[in-house]
Model the fold of this input.
Amino acid sequence: MEKHVQIQIKLEKLHTQLPNSISPIQRDELFNLHHHYDSVVKDELDFFFKYMNFYTGILSALIAGTLTGLLSLKPLSSLGLILLLGPGLVFSISYIGYKNVKVYYRRYLEAWVTVINIKTMLGLRKAAVHSPDILPPAYPSRHGGGFITQFKRIPIQKLFDKLEADRATAEVVLEKLLLHGDTLKFAKYTFRVFIIGAFILVFAIICLCWH
Done:
């Protein structure tokens, strides 16, 4: 968390150093911003996966511990109902965990969309005008002919194309990506698997221990 706080402080300082509305922003300033936000993209995505691994580990331990307790309970009695605490914790941690990782994914998307904007402003996403001593890329990107390799799933690329044609705002792009982005979607599926497993354990505990 200390690293995340340092990133936020660094971001606030960088915003205060931006030129005011009278002074035009220069290319070197845009490159500095690009370097900063690109590092934020990596850091926020790193936080996302670290917390996903953290919650996945806790939930796996709760499921395994509850199942072990149920299988080792001999003879079966109503005392086994105390094992319902395990599935209850799984429900709670899955909900809280998803909300937490969604925060980091949203911050990642905010920085990513900002990087896309900066690259567009710098002309890095399209075929760039080269100096006489610079040769064209061997494998130009099919997205504008630039030299930066890009990969997006076809549905996501169509979404970007539509939003760009509609001249959508950055905030609209962010909300659409939150709905259709693969990473957060698979995180949601992961938490749902644990919830389904907890429901199965609840059913098994009640059936075997209720007298």
Q: What stands out?
A: The chain has one domain: 2-17+25-124+142-209. The radius of gyration is 24 Å. The chain has a mean pLDDT of 82.
